[in-house]
Amino acid sequence: MNFLANACLFLLFSAAFALTASQFLPKLTPRQLAVNQLVNASRILALQGIADDSLGHISVRDPLSPNTAFLITAGSSVPAHVTPADIAVVRINDSVVTSAALSAYPPPKPNPGIFIHSSIYQRFPNTTVSSIAYYAPEQLLPFALFPDNSPNVTSTSVTPEDLTGFYAVTSGAAFLGAYPAPVYSVFDAESGATSVTVDNAIKGYEMAQKFGPAGASSQTVNLKDGFRPLVLMRNDGATMVGATVPETVFRFVQAVKNARVLYHFLSSTDAIVPQFLPAGVATEATDNPTVRSWLLWMSQIEASIKADSARSPELWEGDSVSNSSSVNKNHGAHQQPFAASASILAVCVAIFNVMLYRL
């Protein structure tokens, strides 16, 4: 009886939420939703101290053509002030910017590191990688300065000689799996390189290999020759991948927290091996922490989005698709991508909890 009651309650809740959402939520196209996610992600990573005033970018496969193009933060805006006008559409096969993501804007100038994204998207299916982020958080950089000498040593087999590897020590970093994050050196990929930037296809191809065998599944993260979701970059920064934009952001934040904990431990001891997460620990966080964190972070950037959209409304009024000649009636929906949906969700959850308690 309880099962039947709960099932009916779930269906009622779902129907109520769908009806409410259809009436009050802004009607966004898949492209607009993807653009909003990238804008929010960039600002969240800036708020978390991962993306500061330095170069950095986050991307997602284009929902209109996920196998041939991706959307990426570009232009001259710093991560904390990215707007819909800063999102570019890029071809995966040759890293060429074809247009702005939304038709009201000119094509943003691409970042030199665009080859990171195109090379990784070429190497892995969208079920493994649908979002990529490159930034240079100072917490991760120390672990990118050591040679990549222990790539095949698991977290349960570490010796004092292997302490330079970046292993998972917190549950939030369990997505790293049993092996240390690989370290990519541009100087290995291109002898005589004068820049650490991955600014051509050769460097991009060499770096993409660090994430694992071509076509590898994320489920192989605990295997010796399996997939790796994070690659550290010598003298540069780090690149994180995920199946969604929120997952990529969540992973980056957790990796930085893991780096802080590991750095403090190694600084306070001498040649003592930390108790890293064992290989058997679940490697994928459940949806709940990711969603909860994403909603919290969204609420924290809402004020800055409102302020920026009020200051420069022309940067927030793009319509749906870059090659469209019609103007979307919901062009202002970019201005408040969080408030309406979060409020409706909160109300529905509250009603659901009360009804469940009474049952």
From TrEMBL:
<keyword id="KW-1133">Transmembrane helix</keyword>
<protein>
    <recommendedName>
        <fullName>Class II aldolase/adducin N-terminal domain-containing protein</fullName>
    </recommendedName>
</protein>
<dbReference type="InterPro" id="IPR036409">
    <property type="entry name" value="Aldolase_II/adducin_N_sf"/>
</dbReference>
<dbReference type="Pfam" id="PF00596">
    <property type="entry name" value="Aldolase_II"/>
</dbReference>
<dbReference type="GO" id="GO:0051015">
    <property type="term" value="F:actin filament binding"/>
</dbReference>
<dbReference type="InterPro" id="IPR001303">
    <property type="entry name" value="Aldolase_II/adducin_N"/>
</dbReference>
<keyword id="KW-0732">Signal</keyword>
<keyword id="KW-0472">Membrane</keyword>
<feature type="signal peptide">
    <location>
        <begin position="1"/>
        <end position="18"/>
    </location>
</feature>
<dbReference type="InterPro" id="IPR051017">
    <property type="entry name" value="Aldolase-II_Adducin_sf"/>
</dbReference>
<dbReference type="GO" id="GO:0005856">
    <property type="term" value="C:cytoskeleton"/>
</dbReference>
<keyword id="KW-0812">Transmembrane</keyword>
<feature type="domain" description="Class II aldolase/adducin N-terminal">
    <location>
        <begin position="36"/>
        <end position="263"/>
    </location>
</feature>
<feature type="transmembrane region" description="Helical">
    <location>
        <begin position="338"/>
        <end position="357"/>
    </location>
</feature>
